[in-house]
Amino acid sequence: MLASIDTSMIDWARAQFALTAMYHWLFVPLTLGLAVVMGTMETIYVISGNEFWKRTAKFWMKLFGINFAIGVATGIILEFQFGTNWSNYSWFVGDIFGAPLAIEGVLAFFMEATFIAVMFFGWGKVSKKAHLASTWLTGLGATISAWWILVANAWMQYPVGMEFNPDTMRNEMVDFFAVAFSPMAIVKFFHTVLSSWMLGATFVIGVSAWYLLKNREKEFALASIKVASCVGLFGAAVTFLTGDLSAYQVAKVQPMKLATFEGLQQGGNGVGLKIVEGVEIPKALSFMATRDIDGFVPGINDLMEGGYALPDGTTALSVDEKIQRGKIAITALGNYRKAKTEKNEEQAAIEMATLQENMPYFGYGYIKDKSTLVPNVSIMFWAFRIMVGLGSFLVLTYIVMLYRTWRKKHDNAPVWLNYLLLWSIPVAYITSQAGWIVAEVGRQPWTIQDLLPVNAAISKVSTGSVQTTFFIFLIMFGVLALAEVGIMINAVKKGPADVK
Questions:
Q1: H helices within 27-173, ranges in order?
Q2: What is the pTM of this model?
Q3: Under a CB-based contact definition with an 8 Å cutoff, are residues 336 and 375 in contact?
Q4: pLDDT by residue (tens digit) across 344-373?
Q5: Using CA of residue 374, residue 378, residue 383, residue 386, what is the dihedral sign?
Q6: Of 2, 13, 278, 416, which is most buried, counting CB atoms within 10 Å of its CB?
Q7: How far is CA 145 from CA 100, 151, 273, 317, in A?
Q8: Beta-bridge partners for 276
Q9: Integer Cα distance of 69 and 201 in angstroms
Q10: CA nearest 437: which of 374, 380, 392?
Q11: CA pair distance 410, 398, nearest whole angstrom
C-alpha cells in the first residue's frame, strides 16, 4: 500500500496541515493571554468598585471576542484534516488520539460557549461576582481546551498508556491517566499556556503604547501596561522554567530533536550550549540534558550510528539495526494474522512474541531513507535561537515597563520606546511560532515518535485534491486574517471610550 502513495502528496499534506496549524496558533495564544489580563482587570473592578477598571476590562474583552471567534473556526478545520489527509493515522491510533479531542470538544468547548454568553451579555443582568466568575470560567474553559489538545500533541511526542492490538491493527488505550497526565503533557501544557500569557501581555502593552503615541487614553494605557507587565513577567518565569524541564524530557525521549536544535553532529561529555556558532556556555547542554555537567549527550552521528552507552546500561542501536528490527516486527505481524486466519495458535503465539519483542521499533520498518530521520538542522537551530532570543527580549520589556509604570516614569515616555513596544507585538508572534516549529519540525519524520512515520500515516488521495484544498485554505485564511486585523484595528481606533 505504501509504495502506491505519491511522495509529493505527502509533502502537500504536510504543508496543508502546517499552514492550518500555524494559522490557528495565531489566535489561540492571544485568547489564553487576554483571558488572564481581562480577568485580572475585572477582579480589580469588583474589589475596588472603580468604574474605570470595568471600562478597561470591557475594552480588552471586546478584542478577546473578535479573536476568539476566528480561533474556534480554524481549530475545527484543523481537526477535520486528520480524517481527510491522515486517515491511516486516524485508524492506527484513533482510539487514543480521539479521546482527548472528544473531551476537549464536549467539556471545554461547551464550557466556553456557556460562560462566554454571560461574560459578554451579562453586564448589569447578573451580580458583579457572578459576572466575574463567568469571565474567569470562560478563560478556564479555553485553558482546559488547550490542556486536552496539548495532551494529544504530547502523546504524539511521547506515546504512553497504550498497547498494539494485532487483531484490530490498532493501538488501543490501556491507561487513560498515563496519557492524560504524562510528564510530557504536564510540562508542555504549562510551557505553552504560560508562553501564551506572554503573547497576550505583549499585545496589551503594544496596543497601549499606540494610545500613548497618539496622546489618547493615557490613564487607560498606563494601567493596562502595568497589569499586562505583571501577567507577562509571571508567564515568562514559568515559561523559562518549563522550557528547561521540556529540554530535559526531550533529551530522554526525543534525543534527535535535541541534537538538531543544537546543531550537534558529534556528541560527548560536558557539552556546551551554543548561543550562536562559535559562542557557547560551557557544559550547559550536558547539564540541561542529563542534570550532570559532565553527562554524555549524543549528537546526530551518534544517534545514527549507535554504539554508545544508554542511562539504563544498555547499548544504543544504530538506525540500521532499528530499521531491521522494525521490518521484523512488520513481518511478524503479517505472519501472526495469517496464522490466526489458519487457526494455527502455536505459530500465532510464536509470531506474537516476535512482534512484541520488536514493537518499539515498528515504525522504523516503514523508513525508506534513513537520512529522513534527521530533521532540518538549519531550521531547528535558528528557530530555537529565535524563540529563546526574542523571548528574552520580551522578558526585558516586562521588567522595564513594570518598573517605569510603578514608578510613574512612563507618563512622558520617549517616542522611540513606545514604538518599540508597539513593534513587540509581531515579535511575540514570531517567538510563539518559532516554539511550535521547534516542537513539530523536530519530531519529523514521525507523526507519532518511533511508532508511525508520515509516509505510513497518510491517506490515499490524489495530489491534485490536496493541492487544491491547500490553496483554498491559503486564500480563505488570508481573507480571514485581513478581516480580523481590520476589525481589531477599527476597535482599537475607537478605543475604550466607545465601549458601552
A1: 28-48, 51-84, 87-103, 109-121, 128-157
A2: 0.92
A3: no
A4: 999 999 999 999 999 999 999 999 999 999
A5: positive
A6: 13
A7: 9, 10, 35, 39
A8: 279
A9: 20
A10: 380
A11: 13
